[in-house]
Amino acid sequence: MTSEEREGRKRERQHATVRATRVQVFVMAVLLIAVGANAQETKPVPPTPIDVKKGDLGGKVWNPAWDLIVEKAIPPAMLSSAVSHDVARFCPRFSTMNDRDKRVFWAYFFQALAGAEAGLNPRARVRHTEPEAATIDKVTGVPVRSEGLLQLSYGDGKLYGCDFDWEADRKLPAASPARSILQPKNNLECGVKIFSNQIIDQHKPLFTRTSYWSTLQPGRKSYRIFAKQMTNPPAACGSHAPTPIKKTATTKTVQDKADATKSSQ
Predict the structure, then answer these.
(1) Rounded Cα distance, 64 and 50, in Å
(2) Per residue in 14-31, pLDDT tens?
């Protein structure tokens, strides 16, 4: 190989390196723009009463990242006018709101549901003894346990196509946060699927005696607990429900206050 050929190959490698660098810079720029756009589209979600109370005590509060999980999981059908009538009690302006505000409402709704079901504790596990609930889980083969933020079961994962992995989870401690069913993302996304099946696929009301969750069944004590958590919906809803919670409060400010309280203890 002549010296000229070696110089030519060297220049080609240099040019290839420059091109690769430019591509990397371009990709990073696109990603940064996308992240920035997403941040602009995100609105803070207000806290529920239980979230504020637990935050004041330095307890386990709702993680703002869970709001985004719910917002991304909401299917377009749950933003349509088909659900406006059902949510009017808690969000009178739902039908006229933009999709971003509607997703914020649903994030608040599922926060309230998790507050009523599990006290916002992602590791909550309950085995019910009531005859109607004390059934055998078809996946685990043992009596059903309600688990996680929305108190779901492994059987639900199979029925609704959720990311629960019993074969892997059975090897872990019962309350291990590594269990797929206890991971907030899996639990919340599954809850959205179950809820969408009720109000969209089956065309059932938002609140019905046959709802998956007893907290959404009118007349039950647990329903009243849920309703109390729905007294601070997003401002865009136009609700006039009285609440002592400051309108500037968000799930993030509650979390920050809880962290500060823990540090001072």
Answers:
(1) 15
(2) 444 434 334 333 433 333
| 24 and 125 inside one domain | no
Domain enclosing residue 209, as ranges: 42-264
What is the Rg, in whole angstroms, of the alpha carbon atoms belonging to the chain?
A: 24
Residues 30 and 47 grouped into a single domain: no
Residues 87 and 148 in one domain: yes
Q: Tell me, what amino acid is at 4?
A: E
Residues 82 and 30 reside in one and the same domain: no
Task: Judge residue 261's burial from the number of C-beta atoms within 10 Å of its C-beta, 0-12 exposed, 13-18 middle, 19 or more buried.
Answer: middle
Residue type, 49: P
CA distance 249 to 239: 16
Report the helix count and the strand count for the chain, using DSSP H and E.
10, 2
Query: 86 near 95, Cβ under 8 Å?
Result: no
Residues 26 and 135 in one domain: no
User: Model pTM?
Assistant: 0.82
Q: State whether 57 and 132 are in the same domain.
A: yes
Pairing of strands 145-147, 125-127: antiparallel
* pLDDT tens track for 111-167: 999 999 999 999 999 987 776 667 899 999 999 999 999 999 999 999 999 999 999
- CA 170 to chain CA mean position, Å: 24
**Same domain (yes/no): 18, 149:** no
Distance CA 157, CA 191 (A): 10
Counted residue by residue, the chain has a size of 265
